[in-house]
Amino acid sequence: MTRAPLTMPAAAPAATDFARIETWVFDLDNTLYHPSARLFDQIDRRMTDFISGALGVARTEADRLRRLYWERYGITLKGLVDHHGIHPQDFLDNVHEIDLSGLKPDPALSDALARLPGRRIVHTNGARAHAERVLRARGLDGLFEAVYGIEDKGLIPKPSAAAYDRVREHARFDPARAAMVEDDARNLAVPKARGMATVWVCHKAGEKAPDHVDRRITCLTRFLGDPR
Hints:
By secondary structure, this protein is of the alpha/beta class. The chain has 2 domains: about 140 residues, Rossmann fold, CATH 3.40.50; about 55 residues, DNA polymerase, domain 1 (Orthogonal Bundle), CATH 1.10.150.450. The protein is about 40% helix and about 10% strand. The protein has a 6-stranded parallel β-sheet with strand order 3-2-1-4-5-6, sandwiched between helices.
C-alpha cells in the first residue's frame, strides 16, 4: 500500500520584527494625541466658514461642498483649488487657527519617543504649521527630524500612493526598514504595499485590524516603550 506523503502544517506567519526599524513615520491628528481633544470639530467649522465667505454661499452649501470635496479628493482643499481657484495657503492658514487648549503635554509619550531608536518624522494631511503647533502643545517639539504637511506633497493627501512616495523622496528612507504609525487603517494599505511595517492606533474597542496592518495597538506610549 502506498502511503500518502507526509505533509507538515503551514507555519504561522512571522511576527513583524520592529527591532529592524530605522525610520518611524507618524501620522499627527488622532495619532500623537487622543481624538477626545476634538480638534477636527473646530477645523470642520472653520472650513465651512471659510468656504462660505470665500465663495459667497450659505453655510449649508459651504458645508455640502466641504464634505463633497473631502469624499472625492481626500482633502477639501484640492476641490477648492481645482474648482474655485482658492489659494492653498490662505485656506491652510485660516482653517488651522484653532484653540489647542484641549491638548496637554504628555511627558510619558515624549520620553517613549525620545528613547525610540532611529529616525522619527511626521507625515500629515494637515498643514505643516498646524502640525508644529500641535507638537509644541503636546510637548513633543524637537523630537522629530522633519514634519511633512500637505503643502510638501503638492496637495496630494493620504491614502494616495503619490503622497507616500513624495514623503519618501524627501526623507530618503528604506521602506523595508521603516514603519508607519496611523489612526486610520485605510492609510496603512499603501505603506504596507511599499514594504513598510504598519502600526494601527485603534481607538474603537473590538474593531478588527485589516490584513495590511501588522500591529493593532490601543496605546501608542505603551507600544513605543517595547515595540516588539
